[in-house]
Amino acid sequence: MNGFDSRLGVGGGGIKEEEHPYDVAPCSSLAVYSTLNFGAAGTIWGLSYAPQDARLTGINRAGFVAKQVAKSTFQCALIGGVCAATHCGIKRYRRKDDWVNGLVSGVVTGVAFATVSRSWRQLIPTVCLVSALRIAR
Questions:
Q1: Nearest of 31, 37, 39, 64 to residue 49 by alpha carbon
Q2: pTM score, two decimals?
Q3: How many helices (H) and strands (E) does the chain have?
């Protein structure tokens, strides 16, 4: 009992190096996890900026805020899910974890976001931002 078992945090056998959960979990689980996390972030973002944009009062203001929150939630969830699923799928297909996976997932995510938001002006900045974030990971 002179080693340290990292799973239990107590003395035990020798030090065991475990695989990272992202390497063992199915791509669908990672996509759902990212979709939920980014969707929650989108909800928080929508709740913080939508009331500032609303120049209405009463029930009209509440409807506008709800619509903006839903739109923000959907867009952020889409970005998280598509990016995670694409990155994981490419990594499993190529059997490599390098910058190419991040670049391709960034391009696919940017195109998906531009398609949903119908703002082709945002295509290049979104592709660059998501690709840079995935590569820097």
A1: 64
A2: 0.72
A3: 5, 2
Give, rounded to a whole angstrom, the gap between the first and last alpha carbons of the chain. 36
pLDDT at 14 (0 to 100): 46
- 89, 95, 99, 103 alpha-carbon torsion, rounded to 10°: -30
* Spatial separation of the C-alpha atoms in residues 103 and 131, rounded to whole Å: 5
Contact 69, 50 (CB under 8 A): yes
- 36-66 residue pLDDT tens: 999 999 999 999 988 887 777 778 888 888 9
Enumerate long-range contacts of 73-76, CB under 8 Å, 24 or more apart. 73/39, 73/42, 73/43, 73/46, 74/39, 74/42, 74/116, 75/42, 75/113, 75/116, 75/117, 76/38, 76/39, 76/41, 76/42, 76/43, 76/45
